[in-house]
Amino acid sequence: MDRVALRGLRARGHHGVFPEERREGQTFVVDLVLGLDTRPAAADDDLTRTVHYGVVAEEVVAVVQGEPVDLIETLAERIAQVCLRHEAVQQAEVCVHKPDAPITVPFDDVTVTITRSRA
Q1: pLDDT tens digits for the chain (119 residues)?
Q2: What is the helix, strand, coil percentage profile of the chain, to 5?
Q3: Phi and psi, residue 116, nearest 5°
Q4: Which residues are designated catalytic?
């Protein structure tokens, strides 16, 4: 399976379990690796036979900016489902970063990574 990756998609969302996270929001960063067969697109040099990563990026940002959820696990699941709606995409690996998580000790990042495939 071939892979198309998008790294560092940034959007402001209001996800989290604490009222201040919901109220103030924070930046989330999303990395995607989409599994698909790129041979048909490459053979014909045809965008319609692959995944349009610009469209996927816009859809992912819309999910992050959209309906708040408590957990970044839930956010990752919603993003994976959006990716799998694209016909060419057979698998989606989604990593959601929450670099401003409300943690009281020094840290660099919090991430949740999931992989989902077509059933």
Answers
A1: 999 999 999 999 999 999 999 999 999 999 999 999 999 999 999 999 999 999 999 999 999 999 999 999 999 999 999 999 999 999 999 999 999 999 999 999 999 999 999 97
A2: 35, 30, 35
A3: -130, 145
A4: 98
Give exposure, 65-104, as e/b (b: 16+ Cβ within 10 Å).
Answer: eeeebeebeebbbbbbebbbebebbebbbbbbbbeeeeee
The reported pTM is 0.96
Do residues 104 and 70 lie in contact, with contact meaning Cβ atoms separated by under 8 Å? no
Residue 29, strand partner residues: 10, 97
CA gap 64, 111 in Å, rounded: 14
Dist. CA 93–CA 115, nearest whole Å: 4
Q: What angle do CA 35, 39, 42 make, to 5 degrees?
A: 115
> 28 with 64: CB under 8 angstroms?
yes
Helices 72-84 and 53-65 pack at an angle, to 10 degrees, of: 150
